[in-house]
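Following up on my earlier thread - several people asked me to post the actual chain instead of describing it. Fair enough. Here it is, all 298 residues.
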Amino acid sequence: MEQKAYSWRSLSNEALPKAETMSKGVTANPASPDFARFKQAIYKKTGIDLSLYKSQQMHRRLYNMVERAGLRTFDEYFALIEQEEQEFFAFLDRMTINVSELFRNPEKWEELTHSVLPELLKTRSNLKVWSAGCSYGAEPYTLLLLLSQMTKYGRHTLHATDIDKKILAKAQEGLFTEADVKNVPPKLLEEYFHTLSQPNSHLNPTLPKYQIKPGLRAKIGFRQQNLLADRFENDYDLICCRNVVIYFTDEAKERLYEQFVKSLRVGGYLLVGGTERIVGYQNLGLDNPIPFFYRRVR
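Reply from S.P.:
Thanks for posting it. Predicted structure:
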């Protein structure tokens, strides 16, 4: 997603009542004019529509960012992220959830390995798979490891997208800590990862200790994407979108799930997170043969 140059000063404050343009500080009210102007400015800068996120939760997260920066208003905070690229990336990181690990929720990967992927491979030898909201790469690399084990010579298409450019750059490096790989079977760890020599890694658990081998990293197509604004490709066999939509409004979720269904081929699967449900999935042309796995049936 291309970022647009945008100046906070170009907002039409003259159209707002005078009292609204003279905010004395950040308010805890997500309906405040200060926050409304911030959402408008972010949309023009990035294409990210914060009004599609649950207002209370998103306001609370960003309110904390303003306070941590030692600022008093969302106006001041937007000016900061316009001037400082590092602050802008911190904003993107805060509004998303970059917490993951390889083989997170192992039971879901067991179901994928023993039920979903074998079913899909009966009709197609080369699958098209998408990790939507891939964070720093744990999910797409897990998918790659599974497919590499199940189909040694398969030429699958794996896409991985996220709204955060900085986290995508990290994902492309394929670097993981000891905690990230705790659920990876030792055989796979030995076969598909390099063990890094990091000074003091035993003292700092946040330092990466393992890296996916280069030949495997090249098999995943990483790209930036705004799930609430950008177009989707079609004909996917499997879409994984887990723990991404929890801050979206119900209307935004409904629209997103409709788009996901259109992007799946008939018989393809959508995997959602362990706290997520698709309300009225039958009306979207889905069935739900396994918890959290939805299959397109028409």
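Strands lie at 128-132, 157-162, 175-176, 193-195, 210-212, 220-224, 236-241, 264-272, 286-290, 293-296. That should answer part of your original question.
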